[in-house]
Amino acid sequence: MTSTGTTDSPTVSDPLDPSRRPPFLAVVSPRVAEAAAVATTVLPGVTPVIHAPHPTAPSRLRATLASIRSEDRPLVVATDSAAIARDADRIIVTDGGDILEDGTPDELLALPSVYAQLYSDEIGANFVGPAPDIADE
Q: For bias kind Polar residues, which ranges apply (predicted)?
């Protein structure tokens, strides 16, 4: 079989180009083992599932995850840290084996969501309510 496509084809993966890289899925749960179990059912056959428990420095782990993204396979992270999942293409939030939320980080932060509450608890910012109107202060 010969290929007539070029390297600009959308089938060629590129970890630096969001539209052409394998997905980064994060499953956030209070229990990392539960997050891992859900991740393997959502994307069966995708390995490795990285177990990333809540760190003291989420930015370091985020940088590590960014550096290990592969050109040829999805990255799946099971974690109890919402901050680690901030760079994911898709986040699934679970509790007790139930999927509570599913969306992009921006979508989930724009709503009064469980993810937004977890994220705000970790980084100390308010992402779960309306933003204060500076003109009213």
A: 1-12
Residue 49 phi, psi (nearest 5): -95, 120
pTM, to two decimals? 0.72
Handedness of CA 87, 88, 92, 95 (dihedral sign): negative
Could you tell me which residues come within 8 angstroms of residue 101 by beta carbon, excluding any fewer than 6 positions away?
91, 92, 93, 108, 113, 114, 115
Identity of the amino acid at 81: S
Is 45:34 a contact under the CB 8 Å cutoff?
A: no
d(CA 77, CA 24): 8
What dihedral angle (degrees, nearest 10) is formed by the CA atoms of 49, 55, 57, 60?
-20
Neighbouring C-beta atoms of residue 19, cutoff 10 Å? 6
Instruction: List the helix and strand counts (H, then E) for the chain.
Output: 4, 5
Neighbours of 124 (CB within 10 A): 6
- The amino acid sitting at 30 is P
pLDDT digits (tens, 9 = 90+) for 33-78: 888 888 888 877 776 678 777 767 777 888 888 888 777 778 888 8
pLDDT of residue 67: 81
